[in-house]
Amino acid sequence: MTRKEQKEFREKQILFKALELFVIKGYSETKISDIADSLNISIGLLFHYYKSKEQLYLELIKIGIDGMKAPQKIEYKDPIEYFSKFLDRLFEAIDKEPWICQMFILIARAQKQGTPDEIRELALSVNQIELSSKIIEEGQKIGSIKNGNALALSTAFWCSVQGIMEQKVALPQLSLPEVDWIVDILRKV
Amino acid sequence: MTRKEQKEFREKQILFKALELFVIKGYSETKISDIADSLNISIGLLFHYYKSKEQLYLELIKIGIDGMKAPQKIEYKDPIEYFSKFLDRLFEAIDKEPWICQMFILIARAQKQGTPDEIRELALSVNQIELSSKIIEEGQKIGSIKNGNALALSTAFWCSVQGIMEQKVALPQLSLPEVDWIVDILRKV
DNA sequence: TTATTCATTGAACTAATATTCAGTATAAAT
DNA sequence: ATTTATACTGAATATTAGTTCAATGAATAA
User: Fold this and answer.
1) Which of residues 45 to 74 on B have a Cβ less than 7 angstroms from any strand C atom?
2) Counting CB atoms within 10 angstroms of each CB, which of A57, B40, B112, B136 has the fewest?
3) A1-51 domain in CATH 3.100.10.20?
């Protein structure tokens, strides 16, 4: 393995393991030694690649934010269809790649108090709730989505998704719910 | 104030502030000094009342578990009505007493990895998901609740509630969603 | 009134853990 | 072949935060 390859390999290896542990155990509860031990590398090596624990956290958030900001082309006629497709894809992706779910949760948690300011602000730069409320309003106009405060509906929907993701990272063996169950939060009966 | 009163006052004061900070900032991110400072008492005094940070955590979990185990008499004809009434009461209680929401989250989080074993086991001793799945099965029989794996439905419902509670503790000014929106996860259309 | 108990503090102590660093081995460059 | 750069380790160090403790003063009991 060339040095360049080795470097890339280690960087990713550390990043992914940190993501996994940060999400499963919590950021503060994850010791640098936990990451190093579970990768069978020395603590020193970890610091050779990332200058601090917080830097590692920041790198992860940056990657996650970039992924979330990348435009998702979801075509739909009925806004309800948008949310169905979105969840379909999310759930499918999660089944294949557990890190997607982990990233989702890492960013959600980073938005809350207790997170270093710089990281928190970055995490706050994606706001699914607000974006979705626009689409919900469309749905309310054509009558496929419940009436009521669109932002509140969007919040309920996204909080539910988040709650489910939290469960999934805690108990990965658990299967995800039917997409329709969750979309029914929004769907007008 | 008599000494007895003072003692009770301090114990509660410390307990409630710890609950608030543990939930808002996270357990590990909350320093003993954060609690002491925000109550304008010395760190030494805090240790006079609670022998360790973990002890404080444990006391809180015990109180929460006791509250959750206290039988809730909810009368219902249709199981859907049970869940509606339950959420109605929960949301109403939360509007009046923010600590109820905090306690809910404290216990939910304590059930996950990263929590000291003794505390985790205690927290795990209440299992709303399993209890509710029985009631969901009833509802499926009479046709008011969606068909499908009752445990999975119950999980989806409770994870959603948890996600919403998490949001509420992070942003208390946000109003809670309509109960029906969340019950629609279970309701057969 | 005097003695005792206990709420309270601030500083000292300790444990945990993040971070640094000197040294070694190996790959790459000259 | 020699030099240079860098992947890597283990031990040393620094820092943070939990915990202890001796001293003080106020409430209670004698």
Assistant:
1) 45, 48
2) B40
3) no
